[in-house]
Amino acid sequence: MAGRIRDEDVALVRERSPIADVVGEYLQLRNAGGGSLKGLCPFHDEKSPSFNVTPARGLYYCFGCGEGGDVIRFIQQIEGLSFVESVESLAQQSGIRLRYEQGGGYTARNDQGQRQRLIEAHREAQRFYAEQLLSPAAKEGRRFLTERGFGRADAEHFGVGYAPAGWEALTGRLRDAGFSDQEIITAGLAGQGRRGAYDKFRNRLVWPVREVNGEIVGFGARKLDPDDDGPKYLNTPETPIFKKGHLLYGLDLAKREIARERRAVIVEGYTDVMACHLAGVPTAVATCGTSFGEDHLKVLRRMLLGRSNQGGEVVFTFDGDAAGRRAAVRAFAEEHGFASETFVAVQPDGLDPCELRQRHGDSSVRDLVADRKPLYEFMIRTVIEQYDLDTAEGRMAGLDAAADIVASIRNDGVRKLYGVNLDHWLGIMDESFVQRRVAQHVAARRRSGGAGSAPARPAPQAPPGAADAGPYDVRDPSLQRERQALKMAVQYPGLASEFDDLDAESFSVPQHRAVYELISARGGVRAAGDAREWVAGLCDTAPDEAQRAFVTRLAVEPMEVYGELDEHYAQEILGTIKIHSINRRVANLKSRLGRLDPSAQPDEYQRIFAELMSVEQQKRMMRER
Ligand code: ZN
Fold first, then answer.
1. Final residue before a domain boundary, out of 420, 439, 465
2. What residues are neighbours of ligand 1 (ion), with CB under 5 Å?
3. pTM of the model
């Protein structure tokens, strides 16, 4: 059993471990005046800092939860270690050789606490792997790195190494260094075989995973020979010192920059972290074989809290089609109330940061992060992109789909802002209309039982003219008018000669357009002779049963006319349709202009603008007639 550490040595450890430095490894501290420092308490959840550190007295205290003590107590609490293990950990970092009381005398000894032993085993393992990377057997490993743009200095900087193919290469080395098989297995560096320990990582490239204070607690390992057993990436299993729920690869290197820039970039893999750091994004970290979770967020939040109480940015990088992860991030960010601090950077062409750097250079990686979008903007735009915003129906359908996302934003001010943005992104150009629609969704969410439960959306108005030619809203006066014109063209082609001056775009729904095209295909109403043959001909030309049925219906539905059914009436109806069609074109063009950025797409902007001017001109001429 471990003896008692000499009191003098404990005192020396305290003296050589300045509390501000040690605490500063785990959370961001800022000056609180009066010689003390402040940060977010790592021991309870809080939004504003009540965790105080007084360097002059070597103490910390949290006014929120009452946790407090000296530097040793801090390590005990944050690492979950015993007193002896904490002193050993601190001693290790400040280069103090401890002496223990044993049977009256003091000895330096080898039977330290378990944590320290496991960390030393990892330090030794990392040294071994790094040496092996230079051996002839590691040729494939070196090629893997070279192909991804990493040189020898880069590998050394990140501590990358090579685990040889044998079964006892590392195990043998650790045995020689005095570690027992049990220790090697507990560390997760070896598995338990029938004849003792055998190497966990074989013929793999290995990355050391460090705690925030730089201690190596595990490895991530990539397969080099596709024919070998096991997954492409293999990580250290959960051990007494490897807790993947809170570990972030690269955090030991990134933490100062994360605090300075108030931003953390979450990437997928070890090589992505390397590529980002080398390309000038030193705030990149990656989870180790698990998805981003609550404990990762806590660790980052403590780093992000810098000079003010405003939380920093967490940027998630995605390739183009990672829909599942996007949804997961959104759900997670909303649940933990940091959605408004969450950003998304979408990798162009689905390239990860490592590939991006390889193909397009360092600046492309920096651009990736610079082009990040707020999570809400990203989610909303992804949804509305699925609609055809060049039509009024598409914009309305897009509004319905996106209004629900906006309605899910809890902060009133942020929600309002996104309502304004949504109007702009859709090009509806009626802010109060969009805000009302959002408010309806908010109310529906409240009725359905608030934030936690699935939102009951207001019944979406089916966009008129779904392609199945199903029923549309016949109460819509402009649709009634179009239908009236079609009936006229089918039943009384002789009255409706100006029908042929319209075009398919004059009709606002697909069913109507289809009938117009059918009529054109038969040579227009001017080609109509006998009324019965005319209808029969249209039905013959109809491409499917649904359209044939619709034409038949138009042929038998009575005309609703208040007054005389004559050429004058026909002219009035057709003229109005023409005017409405022009108005629709004007609205669509204006909407497109509203969505265009004139400085980014000057040619497109000019083109749409010219088209708008010409349509406005047509409209004036129509009116004058
Ligand atoms: Zn606290």
1. 465
2. 41, 43-44, 62, 64-65
3. 0.65
